[in-house]
Write a structure and sequence with these properties.
The chain is α/β, with parallel strands linked by helices. 34% of the residues lie in helices and 22% in strands. It is elongated and about 75 Å long. The structure holds adenosine-5'-triphosphate (ATP) and magnesium ion.
């Protein structure tokens, strides 16, 4: 309750302060330049451009003021323009410095685009931070927990993850457990979609067997992990990604134990886990305290939650309760780094439409998932998806 009030106050302050800061930015920049440099060596504002939530200044640097000198004053501009309420970037363009000051620390809506750099083995565009688009490599995590109250964007994050992985040149096998049977039917031909508890138990059991088989294979072939194995061996092992939407629905002791085993032991064999839940309390897992299993999720995506306690359960810190009420706004923790991000929105209907167009139209038979520039499109089928049997 108390946390809720704080979150509301924080939002109100944001909405009052931001427009005021916007009006003050040009004055702050002029005054800072005048205070820092004397007349003869003073950088000159060559152009000022209003952008959505701030300004871009093109500043001519006189002889004797290098870009490095100008850049070293970034904190002065930041303090004068609003401190932590503004984002300040300085870049170089010839003899000009480009000073960008924005009060919109993060945009509140981004559409999913498959045009992102393919860094790592299982790259996913997780969201936009102050630094720009954050692309993570699921293979290097390799487990991710997604938490937050209803309507925050957890399932949307799963749409983003699944479609991004399916569009890769070498897509992993995806086992998607959706016991709420709500929203992933459009993927049923492309992932192993599991909507019943009994099948989910079989799938988890099968994955543990697959893990043991791979552990043995790596041991016999003397490779420490799948990465090293795939680099040297002709027949590659496909990565496997297990995604569970609403972990609390997995109400079977054996299935929970299998999941815990996977979380603990499958790091080196190329099996990754993504689990979403509204409230990952210790009661979710009956077999063991959730805290133990949770420690294996090195990636944590936390949408808005109602209490500091819920935020701590997901993130190990309270920021999730202070997030503004913006769909798709989340905190992302990767190891020790914790950042605020706006996750991209992916409309499953759009994926279906593209797929229908491709299978019905010209694209049939030549379904390139990425064009020659490395730019991908959402929802394209590939013929290369390896499979494992889960029944
Ligand atoms: N990244 C986003 N950007 C903009 N809007 C979003 C985003 N993610 C979700 N939304 C909006 O919020 C709605 C709810 O999202 P979603 O179904 O993903 O929530 P959820 O956390 O899975 O909720 P539940 O716990 O009830 O399943 C979506 O239908 C969409 O309108
Ligand atoms: Mg959901």
């Amino acid at each position: 309750m108390k946390e809720n009030i704080f979150a509301e106050i924080k939002n109100d302050i944001r909405s009052i302060i931001m427009p005021m800061l916007n009006m003050e930015i040009p004055l702050a920049v002029t005054e800072t330049i005048e205070a820092l440099w004397e007349d003869k060596r003073r950088p000159q504002i060559h152009a000022k451009k209003k952008i959505a939530n701030g300004y871009t200044f093109t500043i001519a640097l006189p002889a004797g003021v290098s870009f490095k000198d100008f850049y070293s004053k970034l904190d002065y501009f930041k303090d004068a323009a609003g401190g932590n309420n503004v984002q300040v970037d300085i870049s170089q363009s010839g003899k000009m410095a480009i000073l960008n000051i924005s009060t919109d620390l993060l945009g509140d809506y981004f559409t999913y685009s498959a045009d992102y750099p393919l860094k790592g083995i299982l790259p996913i565009p997780i969201g936009y931070s102050k630094r720009g688009l954050e692309v993570i490599d699921l293979a290097s995590l390799p487990h991710m927990l997604i938490g937050g109250t209803t309507g925050g964007g957890k399932s949307n994050a799963i749409h983003v993850i699944a479609n991004s992985l399916l569009n890769l040149p070498e897509p992993p096998v995806i086992v998607l457990i959706d016991l709420k049977m709500s929203e992933y039917n459009y993927l049923e031909n492309r992932v192993m979609l599991v909507t019943e508890l009994e099948t989910a138990c079989q799938a988890l059991d099968r994955l543990v067997q697959e893990m043991r088989k791979r552990q043995l294979l790596l041991k016999q072939s003397k490779f420490v992990n799948i990465g090293k194995y795939n680099a040297k061996c002709v027949t590659k092992l496909p990565y496997i990604v297990l995604i569970i939407d609403e972990l609390a629905e997995l109400k079977d002791k054996d299935a929970q134990e299998d999941l815990e085993t996977l979380l603990r032991l499958c790091r080196s064999v190329g099996i990754c886990n993504v689990a979403a839940t509204q409230r990952p309390s210790s009661k979710i897992f009956t077999s063991k305290s959730f805290g133990d299993a949770k420690a294996n999720f090195s990636g944590r995506l936390c949408y808005q939650v109602i209490s500091n306690i819920d935020s701590r359960i997901i993130l190990d810190s309270g920021e999730g309760a202070l997030l503004p009420s913006i769909p798709g706004r989340a905190m992302w923790r990767n190891g020790r780094e914790l950042i605020e991000i706006q996750t991209p929105y992916l409309d499953p209907e759009e994926v279906q439409q593209i797929e229908q167009f491709q299978t019905g139209g010209k694209a049939k038979g030549q379904q390139a998932y990425r064009n020659s520039n490395g730019v991908g499109r959402i929802g394209c089928k590939t013929n290369t998806t390896p499979t494992i049997s889960i029944r």
